[in-house]
Write a structure and sequence with these properties.
Two copies of one chain form a homodimer.
Chain A (H helix, E strand, L loop, with lengths): L1 H4 L3 E5 L8 H11 L5 E5 L5 E2 L2 E4 L8 E4 L3 H14 L3 E4 L9 H16 L3 E3 L5 E6 L2 E6 L39 E5 L2 H14 L3 E6 L8 H9 L6 E6 L5 H10 L4 E5 L4 H6 L11 H11 L2 E3 L2 H13 L7 E5 L2 H13 L9 H10 L5 E2 L3 E2 L9 H10 L5 E7 L4 H14 L3 E6 L2 H9 L8 H11 L3
Parallel strand pairs in A: 1-2, 1-5, 2-4, 5-6, 6-7, 10-11, 10-12, 12-13, 13-14, 15-17, 15-18, 18-19
Antiparallel strand pairs in A: 3-4, 8-9, 8-11, 16-17
Helix pairs in contact in A: 3-4, 6-7, 7-9, 10-16, 11-16, 12-13, 13-14, 14-15
Chain lengths: ~475, ~475
């Protein structure tokens, strides 16, 4: 598995000089992503591709062979990589098990070939690997046609359209972002969603592996390796059908890092669409759900929930379920409170000291319950002490912050200072308040896209 | 009610020369929003405010009096407006019924004063009104402190941070955007969310009314008027507690336009927070939900759902529940299919003619079920005929489109042409595909933020 995520040398089978070919895109991604190791282009028809000398077959082994040739030619490429003594191969082509019995047989031959040579095999029918490598990235992945890259978004929450910056070169450096979020996905396209959300939210990405049809390497193999990976802090998995549900649950149980799962194909049509991945747990998701809960896996219901949970778990400590909703915006805060209760969080009333201080600092029409609504008419200098009182209140394990349109820096500073001092987790929904948002961002506080999603983000870090 | 939404003349009580005062912000909003009618500043202590002559009391009536004075001074201002013969007044100040019994008594006196003079009263404790007026806007609303305006977003779906462009002047022209979406809100802050989402999604706004404590004008009054309003195509309501649930349901039943409701305060903490608005339906939302369903009201569970539904209903015709998921992105399309089934949509298989054409045009590993996955390897010229076949298929009332990362214009053009030709509704989730997105936007096809939200948007226009 180390050869997949941390190879020192890579070969690209199918490296092409034709820009329209996927093998060209893949080689360009590998060579421009910042990968510092050795790269070999394998192409029997060319002496050189993208400035690299090309060979017709591998002469000495590499750690990782990326196989980007049509399905019919994949077997020869895998055989060549196995013969040369490569440690792992990723087969990116489609047209195997997902097309039916004949394809499945070819897929099994690929896995057998690799297995006999002691080589791990990822895929086929996948998008490859993206992995931190020193100061850069190994971008061993491709999309059919690359969209136009645009400048990097300077602001995480409401970004400009960033189109395809993740490829050919990942558009952010390894030291820019915190987080260490890794994704294992049975869908390649879901990887595109992951990179788009990572950019939009400012998540630090550690590893991405598209496992496709899982002929050899499964989601459980990847999870087991990532559990011990120093670059990974949180693991996300997009799964259409588990290859071995029991093994996965056992791996998740052993993993000391937060694990978030999005299971697709729970409906009849969805299961039909995911039919090429018929795993043991598919079709009886009730049992899986209970097993996940026992193993401490955070299960997301939607893609938004999934990315919200990854963002929260990358940024916040785990804490209890008693939460304060702290706001100057009545209606949106009520939405946050509703959502928090729906998600099993508790909203106890504040203690008497907090109530006294809110009454002292905020206008008479402020609400000192929970939600605690300081109102926009609270004098700016009143915010830091009132906010500090809420964070200090032993009734609360953490805080949900909601602010629509009151761009008073003291509000953001009060939240940031109290969060730092108390170490209590805080998730926020803010709108039209650039100064407040800058204070929250500097303190690493996740800002979500709606009041309900701020509540869901908190729920992801809440312990029982 | 016409005097509230379509006044020809407006007075601003509390118009102040002090930029930090809300009365200053309000008068600036009214005078710079593009309102073409007469504006009178009422301020006993100044001869002129913002270049307008100020009067100590109204000398002749206006259609609408905007009252922006502290709670203690509101009664005198309302009495003055009533004496002068104004048709309606909006009291924006806080500090009334939401603070307890004493405040409720003052609120009732305001309503009685207005009632005796035959004047309608909106609020108190509200954010005012925003309404189309000729080529401009009446922006009779305020926020405590205005955020910095930034340039208008040229692209609806993934916009740059636009901060507060809606105020002091609404940042888009009345003819730029289709839609005619109107919002009635018991929360002022939720109005900020509405304008932010309208900008982000490119929704055309017709009217916004913040009804606050509903001392006289209620959400039902507003709904009844908007039902007959030529500028309004879709009505959204944010409600914490219904003033008269039966009347609201009856009004919704009579309204021929789509009505979307977001009910806040359904949880215990939320209901506590909304306690100043104790309406008859609060606390027994199960009954309300059933009544809404019978009246054809679309009930949203979250703010995201609410805005998704408004966007879909503003853009798409109503149609049946049988939907095709059309994609080149397997995993995200399975999420759309799962969500569609959860929401009660049906995903029948395509007819034999469609299957035949997909088999002909797309690669062998394409999926001709539902989802219909043409795969990124489908030749560009294959998209328009394959897409046309899906739209023409009588099995489908409408289509969900999912495309992550394949920016082939033929795909977008195929969808736009087939949607125009067949008139079937289509909602999309697309990612990193600017050319495709431009084709969809030009055809007025709503693009949502996730596969599940595209499904939810379709569900909002689906009839039983």
């Amino acid at each position: 598995m180390e050869a997949i995520f941390e190879p020192r040398s890579v070969a690209v089978y199918g490296a092409s000089r034709d820009e329209r070919k996927l093998g060209h895109v893949l080689l360009r991604n590998v060579t421009t992503g910042g990968f510092g190791g050795r790269v070999v282009a394998v192409n029997p028809g060319a002496a050189e591709v993208l400035g690299l000398p090309a060979v017709p077959a591998l002469e000495e082994p590499v750690d990782l062979a990326l196989v980007s040739v049509p399905a019919a030619a994949a077997q020869a490429a895998v055989a060549d990589a196995a013969r040369a003594g490569c440690r792992a191969a990723i087969v990116l082509a489609s047209g195997f098990g997902e097309t039916g019995e004949a394809g499945r047989a070819v897929e099994q031959r690929l896995a057998a070939l690799a297995g006999e040579a002691g080589m791990r095999l990822v895929g086929p029918n996948c998008m490859g690997v993206v992995s931190r490598h020193g100061d850069g990235w190994l971008n061993g992945s491709y999309f059919w046609r690359l969209p136009e890259p645009t400048p990097r978004n300077p602001h995480p929450r409401v970004p400009p359209a960033e189109r395809g910056g993740w490829s050919p070169a990942i558009s952010w450096g390894p030291r820019e972002r915190p987080g260490g979020v890794s994704l294992v996905s049975q869908s390649g396209a879901f990887g595109g969603m992951f990179f788009a959300e990572a950019r939009r939210r400012g998540l630090g990405v550690a590893r991405f592996l598209s496992v496709g049809n899982c002929a050899d390497v499964t989601e459980s193999d990847a999870l087991e390796w990532l559990a011990g990976d120093g670059a990974t802090a949180v693991v996300g998995l997009f799964v259409e059908a588990f290859q071995d549900g029991r093994r996965f649950v056992a791996a998740a149980e052993r993993c000391e890092k937060p694990v978030v799962v999005l299971k697709a194909g729970k409906g009849r049509a969805g299961a039909r669409a995911a039919a090429s991945h018929t795993g043991s747990l598919a079709g009886r998701h009730g049992a899986a759900r209970a097993a996940f809960a026992r193993a401490g896996v955070v299960e997301a219901d939607t893609a938004d929930d999934f990315f919200d949970a990854l963002q929260a778990l990358a940024a916040l400590p785990r804490a209890g379920r008693c939460v304060a909703v702290l706001t100057i915006s009545g209606g949106p805060a009520v939405l946050a409170a509703d959502a928090a209760e729906r998600l099993g969080l508790r909203l106890p009333p504040p203690g008497p000291a907090t109530v006294r201080l809110v009454r002292e600092l905020a206008p008479p029409f402020a609400a000192a319950g929970n939600p605690i609504d300081l109102t926009p008419q609270c004098p700016p200098e009143g915010f830091p002490p009132a906010i500090a009182a809420v964070f200090d209140d032993p009734a609360f394990d953490g805080v949900l912050v909601v602010n629509c349109g009151l761009d008073v820096p003291e509000f953001g500073r009060g939240v940031a200072a109290a969060a730092r001092r108390t170490g209590k987790p805080v998730a926020a929904f803010v709108l039209d308040v650039p100064a407040v948002e800058a204070e929250l961002a500097a303190a690493g506080i996740p800002v979500l896209g709606s009041p309900e999603r701020a509540a869901a983000a908190y729920a992801a870090v809440a312990t029982r």
